[in-house]
Specification:
Layout (H helix, E strand, L loop, with lengths): L2 H6 L19 H15 L2 H20 L12 H62 L4 H21 L1
Helix pairs in contact: 2-4
Length: about 160
Amino acid sequence: MTTRQMTARLDQPREIRRTFMPRVHYDPESFGRVSERIARFLGTARFLVYLTAFIAVWMVWNTFAPASVRFDPYPFIFLTLILSIQASYAAPLILLAQNRQDDRDRVQYEQDRSRSERTIADTEYLTREIAGLRVALSEVVTRDFLRSELQQVMRELDTKDSAA
């Protein structure tokens, strides 16, 4: 049996693979909260002002400072590298925050839907109860009906007494 055939068998446990990298355990929930905070900050005017000020200071320093202290001359290659690294980290953080928001929205939608179903069921129950009460009330003896029946009984008794 080849190694590939042995690994494809489902009745055999997998071999433990040794790696040189230590296993890093992290809490995905706390990582998600931190990424949401960062993504929320990246979408603010304050971040844009800070970034614009940083770039302006960088460009002014590397343009007008003495040549001996300039560290990134005119094409500003290092600044471009820093901005591309920032963008490459910002995009996944924003996507992670959006996915977490989608999950929260999905849970909220399910809760709203179940609440709506309960409300509809309660409304239908109350409608049936009201209809039942209306039917029951139509069979209840009213005061006027009782008076008319008593008067009719009195007349019948009077006619029987006078006939006898």
